[in-house]
Write a structure and sequence with these properties.
The longest helix has 50 residues. The N and C termini lie far apart (80 Å). The protein is mainly α and 214 residues long. The protein has one domain.
């Protein structure tokens, strides 16, 4: 399977940066394979690093929109019935569902850093009818550093670009976990620390207002 994907990507190389972008719009084509290979093309002098990163980020934003649309307009029954044609397995979908239920809409950003979840998380976002512009913005912001990392490592490792996937995942998992912890901490701080103060302030203002009227 990997051999066929690589042949497909090599064919798209003839379209230059547009080919990199197109390759990443197909969700069955792993970014972990395409981006390090594109980095190797930079190493060979065929492409520019920053233009590859830009093309990869745009493609990596459009790609998840296909799964978002499947979730939004097809729903779970459609995914379970036809998901196999998109290389989607039920266990993967359940894992993405659980992650979305626990962490809400922000997973459109945080889940991109977690291997095994980042691709299919778009489906629960679609089923929840998350605002498509917010979904796209979160995805773009997350894909920018991820794309740079994969492409840069592919560039630095040169002919050993195939080793980038496993190496990058070692960094992405702790980064994703750290972002998730920070997001949850921010939510709890905002809800349980700042909000009570705001309520107290409003109550005090109301008390003063009533006293003044009397």
């Amino acid at each position: 399977m990997e051999h066929l994907i690589l042949q497909f990507v090599e064919f798209l190389k003839s379209f230059s940066y547009l080919g990199v972008m197109l390759a990443l719009t197909f969700e069955f084509v792993p970014a972990e394979l395409v981006l390090p290979l594109a980095g190797y093309w930079v190493f060979q002098g065929d492409m520019n690093l920053w233009l590859v990163v830009l093309a990869g980020t745009i493609g990596g934003t459009f790609g998840p929109l296909t799964l978002y649309a499947l979730g939004r307009y097809g729903g779970r029954p459609f995914i379970l019935k036809y998901g196999k044609y998109f290389f989607i397995r039920e266990k993967q979908l359940e894992k993405a569902d659980e992650f979305f239920e626990k962490h809400g809409a922000k997973v459109a950003f945080t889940a991109r850093f977690l291997p095994g979840v980042r691709t299919l998380i778009s489906i629960p976002c679609g089923m929840a009818k998350m605002n498509v512009w917010i979904f796209s913005l979160y995805t773009f912001i997350a894909m920018l550093p991820i794309t740079f990392m994969y492409v840069y490592l592919g560039y630095k490792m040169g002919p050993r670009w195939k080793e980038v996937g496993s190496l990058a995942n070692e960094y992405l998992i702790p980064i994703g976990a750290a972002i998730l912890i920070l997001s949850i901490s921010y939510y709890f701080i905002k809800k349980f620390i700042f909000q009570p103060k705001q309520i107290t302030s409003l109550s005090f203002k109301g008390f003063v207002s009533k006293t003044y009227k009397k």
